[in-house]
Design the sequence.
């Protein structure tokens, strides 16, 4: 049984930082690309970032480029999202997505497994 668990969310002031973690069990973590998504109330789920199985290739949505950094530690079956210079518009539930099926990295339908989400709230 595959389990995807996010952690690290919280309340932070604008300009602050948070580091999200995603730990996966039940599949060969190192074999699959992974992604981070977010969803604000009333909005569609948005692709934030994606990372290849080796960690050598990364993608970011334009709104977070230069502020967020995705990484992974395959020995720990864990992926990270370092978020710096946070803005109120980054407020959302953040989800980890595992087992990328190919295609557009920002398309939620291209991932097989999801965590329950971790809330990030940025106050102005």
Sequence:
């Amino acid at each position: 049984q595959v389990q995807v668990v996010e952690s690290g969310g919280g309340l932070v002031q604008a300009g602050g930082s948070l580091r999200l973690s995603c730990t996966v069990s039940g599949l060969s973590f190192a074999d699959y690309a992974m992604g981070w998504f977010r969803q604000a109330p009333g909005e569609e789920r948005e692709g934030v970032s994606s990372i290849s199985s080796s960690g050598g290739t990364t993608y970011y949505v334009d709104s977070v480029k230069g502020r967020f950094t995705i990484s992974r530690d395959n020995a720990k079956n864990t992926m990270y999202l370092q978020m710096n210079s946070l803005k109120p518009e980054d407020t959302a539930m953040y989800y980890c997505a595992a087992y990328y099926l190919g295609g557009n990295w920002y398309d939620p339908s291209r991932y097989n497994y999801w965590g329950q989400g971790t809330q990030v709230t940025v106050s102005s």
Remarks:
- DSSP finds no helices and eleven strands in the chain.
- The two ends are 41 Å apart (CA to CA).
